[in-house]
Amino acid sequence: MTAVLTDNVDKKISSRWHYAIVVLVASVVMLWQLGATALDGHEAFVASTAGNMADRDSWLNPAIAESPIPPNTPLNHWLIPVFNGEPRLVKTPLAYWCVAGLLKLGVPPNEFTARFPSAMASIALAVVVLALGRSMFSPQAALLGALMLGTSLAFVDWGRNARVDMQMTLWMSVAMACVFWALRQSQAPKKHFLLLAAWGALGLANLAKQMVPIFLFLPIGLYLCWRASVASVEDNVARRVLIRYLAVAACGFVACVLVRIMPFLQWWRIAHLSEGAGMVITVGITIGGPAAIYAIASKAWRQGGAVLPTAIPGVVLMLACFVPWMMYIAHTFPQASQVFTSQTTDRALGTGGWLERSAAPLSGYYLWSLAKWSLPWAVFLPGAVAIPLIKRFREDRDALVFLLLWIFGLVLLFSVSVGKHEQYIIPALPAACLLMGYCAEDVFFTHRLFSLRLARGIVAVYAVAILVTAVAAGVALLVVKHDTRPFIIHLLVIAVLALAPVWLALALIRTRPAAALAMMVLSVILAESGYFTLNNPWTDRWDNYARMGQRIRNDIPADNRIIALERMDPAMVWYAGRDLPIAGDIEACLVRLHGGDEGRRLWSQWLQQGRPLWIVSSNQQAEAFKDVRLDQIESIVVSGRQITLFRAE
Question: How far is CA 562 from CA 51, 56, 357, 567, in A?
Fold first, then answer.
C-alpha cells in the first residue's frame, strides 16, 4: 500500500514538473520580444479592426458605403468589424474581440497587444497537447510531443502572429481531446459532458474561422469506424481494413482532382448541372464514398450509441456560437452572403474563380506544408505516421490510430479544398507532434523499432548541419555585398547560438539520451530566441509601412483630409492610426448616389474643398493629379514599388 501511494506521489510530482517545463518553454518561445517586429498586413487587419471596436467614435465611412450604414449602437459596434471605414466580413470575429477586450481594459494598442491572444492560445495549446498525450502514452512521450510542438516552426511563426489560426487550432485540439477522453468514459454523465464540451469547442473554433473546424467531422467519423472495427475483429484484420481505406481514399482524392482540372471529365456539363452542384456530387462520391464503404465494412453504427445522445444538443451548441453573428451580418449587409459563399463553398469546391488561384492540386501541397511546420523535428515525421500501422505497437494502437486519422482526415479535406494556404494544415500539427514524440521516445529510449544508432545519427546530422551553416555564413560575410550582409549576420548569430548545445547533445547521446534531448530542445529555443532578439532584416517590408504610417500619424493633423489612390497595405492603415479611404471608392459612391455627370462634378468639388489634401499613392498613380500642385513629403520602397505621401495645395 505504501509503495502504491509513493508511486502516485511520484507521478503527481512528475506531472507537475512536465506541465511547468512545457509552460516555461512555450512562454519563452511565445512572449520573448513578442512586440519587437512590425505587424504584417494580415496582422494589421486584426489590430486595426479591434482598435475600431474599442474606439466608440470609429465607424463606417459614409463616403464609401455600398449599402445603408447601420447605426453606431454599442451592440453594432462590437458585432460589425470595421477596417478602413468598410465592413470586414470575411472572418468571424473572435480574434477582433480578444484584442479589443484587451484595449478596453487599458492595455496599450501596440504589436505586443495585437499578438498576445494568439500567443496565449499557443501556450494553452501546448498544455492541452501534453494533457492529451499523457492520457495516451507514457509521460515521457507526451512531454516530448508537447516540447516538439512548443518549439516547432508553426508554433513560432503563427503563435507570434496576430492572426487567428492558433486560436482556431487550440479549440479544434480541445474538441479532439474531449472526443478521445469521452469515448473512454464508462460513466454516461462524464461521457456526455465531454462530448458537449467538444461541440462547444468546435463552436469557438468556428467563431475564430467559420466552417473550417467542421473538417474534424471526417477524422472523428473515421475513428468511430476504427473503434467499431476493432470491437468486431482482431487487431490485424482491423489494421488491414484501415490500410485499404487509406489507400482507396487516396485514390479517390486523385480522381476528384482529375475531374476538377480536366474539362473532358467534368460530367456535369453533359448532365446540364451547375459547376457547384457537379463538384459537390463529385466530392461526395470520391471522398465520401470510400468513407461510407469503410463505415459499412466496420459496422460503424455500433459506435453510434456513444455519440448520438449529445448529437442534437451538441450541434445546437456549436451553431449557437457563430451562426447568429453570421445571420445578423448577412441581414445587415446585402453583400455579406456573397462574401460568406465565396470564402466557404466556392473556396472549397473551386468555383467562383478559386481554381485559377489554387496551388498545384496534385503536388502534395499539405504534406510538404506539414513537414515544413514540423521543423526542426520533421526528421521524426516519416516514422511517426508509419508507427500507427506497425504490428509491434499494438498496445498503443488505438491512440496512435486516433492521431493518424486526425492528420489524414485534415490533410485529405484541405487537399480537396481548392483555396490553399500553408498555414491551413496547422490544426493537424498537434497530432503530428504527439506521434513524433512517441517516435522520438522509441528512437532515444525504448528501441522497440529503432536503435540508439539511429538516435546518434540524427543528432550528428543536426550538429554537422548547424556547424556547416555557421562556417558558411562566416565565409559568406567576407564576399557578399553590403545589402546582403544583415541577412548573413542574422543567420550566423542564430547558428552560433544553437551550436554549443547541439554538439553537447552529440557528446551525451550514448550515455545520457535524456540530457541529449534536453540539449537539442535548448538549442532550438536559443536559435528561435536569437531570431527575434536581433534586428530582423527579414521584416524590412513591414518596417517601411510602419515608418510611413507613423509619419502620417505624427505629422498630419486629425482634421486634415487624406486619401489613397489605390488600396494601401493594412499595416500602413494601422500605423497611420486613421482611415486611408480610396479615392476611386469615394468617386464611385458619389456616382452611384447622384448619377454619372453629377457624381463626377461632386467628386471634383470634393477634391477642391478643405485644402490641404494629403494623398498616398505610387508615383504613377499620382499623375492623375497633374493639374494640382503636389509637394512630396515622404517616400518608401516596398518590393520594388515606390509609395509616396503628397500634400496637395
Answer: 19, 21, 33, 13
